[in-house]
């Protein structure tokens, strides 16, 4: 699979709005989908005003999804929530992801995207010792994709879910930089 990406740009917001409205995305992301809400929440990263990276993912040159990547230290409150459940090394990164087109789910694309973003994280963030990913326990397809991509479940605990219908139980997955013995 030829997976590439670039930073989200404001011209991508209509596509993002469409993906966020898809039932399989809406179920887990539970995000407002008005033009104003998407601009409010994704605009700062698109303009480089936010330390996170919102990346539009392409498969064979066609947009298929979104990856959000960030250093946990850039979000101290979130870091503290995760550190209450598992040890979080200095410099740890986190990701979130979605496949936007429902016809592209269940084909291993999510796993391939996760693998790809992890490999690029090692190259683009040389100080990152690991990637730590919380996922709501009920989202089996998401945590199975993490497992297939090589991440290991390292803990579970209560975090605020994106969707208020979900239980607070989350699994935390981790992958260490190769060669670090993490």
TrEMBL record:
| A single MF term (Gene Ontology) | N-acyltransferase activity
Note the PANTHER family from the entry. Answer: LYSINE N-ACYLTRANSFERASE C17G9.06C-RELATED
Q: What is the lineage of its organism?
A: Bacteria, Bacillati, Actinomycetota, Actinomycetes, Kitasatosporales
Biological process terms in GO annotation: response to antibiotic
UniProt superkingdom: Bacteria
What protein does this entry describe?
A: GNAT family N-acetyltransferase
Keyword Membrane assigned to the entry: answer is no
What is one Pfam family matched by this protein?
Acetyltransf_8
Where would I find the N-acetyltransferase domain in this sequence? 3-178
């Amino acid at each position: 699979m030829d997976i590439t990406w670039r930073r989200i740009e404001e011209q991508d917001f209509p596509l993002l709005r469409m993906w966020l409205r898809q039932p399989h995305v809406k179920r887990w992301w539970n995000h407002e989908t008005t033009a104003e809400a998407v601009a409010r929440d994704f605009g700062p990263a698109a303009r480089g005003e936010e330390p996170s990276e919102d990346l539009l993912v392409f498969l064979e040159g066609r947009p298929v999804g979104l990856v959000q990547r960030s250093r946990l230290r850039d979000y101290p409150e979130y870091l503290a929530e995760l550190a209450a459940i598992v040890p979080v090394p200095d410099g740890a990164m986190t990701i979130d992801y979605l496949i936007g087109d429902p016809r592209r789910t269940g084909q291993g694309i999510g796993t391939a995207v996760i693998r790809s973003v992890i490999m690029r994280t090692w190259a683009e963030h040389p100080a990152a010792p690991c990637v730590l990913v919380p996922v709501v326990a009920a989202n089996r397809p998401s945590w199975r994709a993490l497992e297939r991509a090589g991440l290991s479940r390292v803990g579970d605990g209560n975090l605020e879910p994106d969707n208020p219908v979900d239980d607070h139980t989350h699994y935390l997955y981790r992958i260490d930089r190769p060669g670090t013995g993490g």
